[in-house]
Amino acid sequence: MTEEEILAFFRKKSKPVHREVICGIGDDCAVISRGSFWELLTTDTMVENVHFDFAYFDPYFVGRKLAAVNLSDIAAMGGEPAYALLNLSVPGISERELPLFWEGITTKLANYGAEVIGGDVTRNPERWHLTLTLIGHAPSGGVIFRQGARPGDLIFVSRPLGASAGALELWQQGFEPPESLKRAHLDPEPEIRLGKVLAQENLASAMMDISDGLLLDLARLCRANSLGAEIEAEKIPVHEALNEVSLSQEPIFYALSGGEDFALLFTVPPEKERFLRLKLGSQRLFQIGYIIEEQIIYLIKNGQKEKVSPSGFDHFA
Ligand SMILES: Nc1ncnc2c1ncn2[C@@H]1O[C@H](COP(=O)(O)OP(=O)(O)OP(=O)(O)O)[C@@H](O)[C@H]1O
Ligand SMILES: Cc1ncc(C[n+]2csc(CCOP(=O)(O)O)c2C)c(N)n1
Ligand SMILES: [Mg+2]
């Protein structure tokens, strides 16, 4: 089974029984009503040689990235991160590695007001296997779900895409990537501030973060709404450093299907666009297309409109 099929199985089978569960399987975070506020829960795992390789990572950046991928799921709901539980499962860890890893994870969490408050340690005979569970909160009713988009809503991404996947390919081909690509892969910045503005000002109708690639994640957002999308290749913000390096594919491929961008993908009703630009001032946003009724994703490229199948990262594809 593919990762997509496994997730579909869980989504179909789950029927929350607790009345306080506002949102269970299927969004970037689970959401639980705690009366005066909503709690947000998310968990993400990083496995050595699946998510990172010590050929170009060190324990400090493994810690920073583990924090970032979880923070990004809180950002995708428009929430505020707070508490984390850390599960460390390793063949062994040295007196040099442990403080570096701890410094990485705690500094990244602290940048966004979060801290580690517990966890678990076990031996893993094979490789580093790390899981972080992050808990956050939002005002009651003040989160943006994947569901909520309407036909005609504008589709935005929060920053240029493809840098992380470009860096990965360069390392895997034995080259040293330029600094901006390296940073995007080793130390991605979660969009906590932007997510909060979009939620608190009720600007976005639907939102998620891009972890598996724009096309695949846009397809997930569309499916959550039983809608489709029309996007334009020329409007997709491709990270500019991809034009300066030698890669196996065109730069736009990494922006469409690379993954690990941790940018926000969100929809905005057209009548709110002016207010959105006003609220975000100098922050650049990239409108790449709009939501359509038909449950298909179209890409307009060189004046041609073509149906695209959602390609991106799947652990088992
Ligand atoms: N093993 C599982 N059991 C129950 N629910 C799961 C399981 N794995 C994933 N889910 C749920 O399925 C949904 C999609 O999961 P997915 O991991 O793709 O989300 P994500 O964290 O936004 O993406 P990524 O892991 O790529 O960052 C989420 O709501 C998640 O909680
Ligand atoms: C060594 C190595 N090989 C491949 C990749 C690419 N990669 C791994 S997981 C993932 C998507 C998000 O993960 P998840 O869906 O588990 O949250 C991507 C694009 C990498 N980073 N390192
Ligand atoms: Mg996510």
UniProtKB/TrEMBL annotation:
Q: Which Pfam families does UniProt cross-reference here?
A: AIRS, AIRS_C
InterPro entries for this protein: PurM-like_C_dom, PurM-like_C_sf, PurM-like_N, PurM-like_N_sf, ThiL-like
Q: Which residues are noted in the entry as substrate-binding?
A: 51, 260, 313
Q: Where does Mg(2+) 1 bind?
A: 43-44, 120
- UniProt: Mg(2+) 2 binding residues: 44, 73
The UniProt catalytic activity note for this protein reads:
thiamine phosphate + ATP = thiamine diphosphate + ADP
> What biological process terms from GO does the record include?
thiamine biosynthetic process; thiamine diphosphate biosynthetic process
One GO MF annotation is: magnesium ion binding
Q: Where, in this chain's numbering, is ATP bound?
A: 119-120, 146, 211
| Pathway assigned in UniProt | Cofactor biosynthesis; thiamine diphosphate biosynthesis; thiamine diphosphate from thiamine phosphate: step 1/1
Fill in the misc note.
Reaction mechanism of ThiL seems to utilize a direct, inline transfer of the gamma-phosphate of ATP to TMP rather than a phosphorylated enzyme intermediate.
**What is the purpose of this protein?**
Catalyzes the ATP-dependent phosphorylation of thiamine-monophosphate (TMP) to form thiamine-pyrophosphate (TPP), the active form of vitamin B1.
Write the protein's name: Thiamine-monophosphate kinase
Organism, per UniProt?
Thermodesulfatator indicus (strain DSM 15286 / JCM 11887 / CIR29812)
